[in-house]
Design goal:
elongated, about 300 residues, 4-stranded antiparallel β-sheet, about 20% strand, transmembrane, alpha+beta, DUF4352 domain-containing protein, Immunoglobulin-like, signal, single chain, 5-stranded antiparallel β-sheet
């Protein structure tokens, strides 16, 4: 006689080929998880902060030629404090690293500023003291006669520059500024297709000058030994190489021998509003005194 099966009874039995059913996801989710540990905030690195402040001040002073010594005192202090801050346990290192980098960069900047100031002093001291200037004459740029006026250091200044056409003569060179062309932007830009226009608020001017070698060097000298600079109304120096352009009729850099002369232009990018208020600073040779010449 067959035993009757109750409805649903077979579904309650576990099949020998299947493992027991695992714990439901709901039951697993009801378990309480332990709280996550909170990370303790690191205390302020006071030494690193002091090192950073000292490094910033040292960097600023290192950029000032007149206060350079202060920067050289502060920057080593900042360097040492930065190293100390990096070895403190459980303290943030960010400010110490920044101070360390800033103190090193500041020292490099200070060295550059120092040598720049020394170079400027040497440049001003290179003047031989025997440069002479005579008033303009019709054949000033071509004559072989020497200048006979008092040393240039006792005559023209920025406030009272020598006029265009004055003969500036040192032991080795005779230099004459023949002309100054203001608002020469179109001529300079047209001189070469790669010449860039001046910056906004600026213009090109052209300085035409003659350089005659009157020295005794058997190998001659190049007119590059003669320097012409433009000094703005507010006292800034502008060099012709500050803006890389090819001038119309540039002055030659080939060597000249005694009696040889070269004439040509140099272009300067100057402020348009005060272009006529600047002056030229001319040095007749590497060891010549600096002489100021008007631009108009």
């Amino acid at each position: 006689m067959t035993t009757p099966e109750f409805p649903g009874a077979g579904s309650q039995q576990t099949s020998p080929n299947h493992p027991p059913v695992a714990q439901s996801a709901y039951e697993a989710s009801t378990q309480t998880l332990p709280p996550r540990p909170t990370k303790a905030k690191k205390p302020l690195n006071v030494v690193g902060l002091i090192a950073l402040i000292t490094a910033v001040l040292g960097f600023i002073f290192a950029c000032m030629p007149g206060a350079l010594i202060v920067g050289w005192i502060l920057l080593p202090i900042a360097f040492v404090l930065a190293l100390v801050s990096l070895f403190q346990r459980d303290k943030p290192k960010g400010m110490g690293i920044t101070a360390l980098i800033l103190s090193i960069v500041g020292t490099i900047v200070g060295v550059v500023v120092f040598f720049g100031a020394v170079g400027s002093s040497i440049d001003n001291a290179l003047g031989s003291g025997d440069t002479k200037v005579v008033a303009p004459s019709g054949d000033a740029g071509a004559t072989n006669g020497g200048a006979a006026e008092a040393p240039a250091a006792k005559t023209g200044t920025r406030e009272t520059p020598h006029p265009i056409g004055s003969v500036i003569e040192s032991k080795d060179w005779r230099v004459v500024v023949n002309s100054v062309t203001l608002a020469a932007t179109d001529a300079v830009v047209a001189a070469n297709q790669f010449n860039d226009p001046p910056a906004a608020g600026s213009e090109y001017i052209l300085v035409n000058y003659s350089a005659t070698y009157i020295g005794d060097d058997a190998n001659g000298q190049t007119p590059s030994f003669v320097s012409v600079e433009y000094v703005t109304a507010d006292g800034r120096t502008v060099n012709s190489y500050d803006k890389n352009v090819v001038e119309p009729d540039p002055i030659s850099s080939n060597a000249l021998y005694k009696g040889g002369s070269a004439t040509g232009n140099q272009a300067f990018e100057v402020p348009s509003a005060t272009a006529a208020q600047g002056v030229l600073a001319v040095r007749a040779g590497m060891f010549g005194d600096k002489v100021f010449v008007a631009v108009k």
